[in-house]
């Protein structure tokens, strides 16, 4: 009976990891619209996976005390960051002979990973209240988001080749729309 409960808990956590990874997939599709090398795609997925470990871990450790305050703040910050990244991609896609302003390297990669993983902080707060297994949870969240980010970036890369010079504007629109979606769910 205990094995059944454990399997049921793991399945629930896996579904939650997929739900959190959907952000990474869709935002990765948008970011994949700019020209990226496979090495960059690997680093981006790995970074987002690490952030999907750190953010829910921080949320789980903080727990119930701050859950009411940071839940909305995380959504607001994530939405605003995605709006800014999307708007910059759209704006700079119309500039002639300019490389894209938003590049997923350095601070741009950190901001990108942070914007995608902020919702996992709120989920971590909730899971901390219920006493979820911390190590299993954060490893599962990180692994699933990393895989889904890679999938999104590779799909976006295919669309980038298909749409050519308009692909960055399309990717910016995806990020911008996702930012609006986050803000509307507050």
TrEMBL record:
InterPro entries membership: Mntp/YtaF (IPR003810), Put_MntP (IPR022929)
Predominant cellular place of this UniProt entry's protein: membrane
GO molecular function: manganese ion transmembrane transporter activity
UniProt topology in membrane: Multi-pass membrane protein
Transmembrane parts of this sequence: 6-29, 41-62, 74-94, 106-128, 134-154, 166-184
Coiled coil segments of this chain: none
UniProt keywords, alphabetically: Cell membrane, Ion transport, Manganese, Membrane, Transmembrane, Transmembrane helix, Transport
Localization in the cell: Cell membrane
A GO CC term attached to the entry: plasma membrane
PANTHER family to which the protein is assigned, alphabetical: MANGANESE EFFLUX PUMP MNTP-RELATED (PTHR35529)
Family: Belongs to the MntP (TC 9.B.29) family.
Annotated function: Probably functions as a manganese efflux pump.
Full protein name: Putative manganese efflux pump MntP
Organism of provenance: Pullulanibacillus camelliae
Lineage, top ranks: Bacteria, Bacillati, Bacillota, Bacilli, Bacillales
Gene behind this protein: mntP
């Amino acid at each position: 009976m205990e094995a059944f409960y454990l399997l049921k808990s793991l399945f629930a956590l896996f579904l939650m990891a997929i739900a959190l990874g959907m952000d990474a997939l869709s935002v990765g599709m948008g970011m994949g619209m700019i020209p990226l090398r496979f090495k960059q795609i690997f680093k981006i997925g790995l970074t987002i996976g690490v952030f999907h470990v750190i953010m829910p871990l921080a949320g789980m450790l903080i727990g119930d005390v701050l859950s009411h305050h940071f839940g909305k703040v995380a959504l607001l910050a994530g939405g605003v960051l995605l709006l800014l990244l999307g708007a910059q991609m759209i704006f700079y896609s119309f500039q002639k002979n300019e490389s894209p302003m938003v590049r997923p390297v350095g601070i741009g990669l950190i901001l990108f990973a942070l914007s995608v993983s902020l919702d996992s902080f709120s989920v971590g707060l909730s899971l901390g209240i219920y006493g979820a297994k911390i190590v299993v949870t954060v490893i599962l969240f990180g692994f699933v988001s990393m895989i889904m980010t890679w999938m999104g970036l590779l799909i976006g890369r295919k669309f980038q080749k298909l749409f050519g010079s308009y692909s960055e504007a399309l990717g910016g629109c995806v990020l911008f729309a996702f930012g609006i979606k986050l803000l509307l769910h507050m």
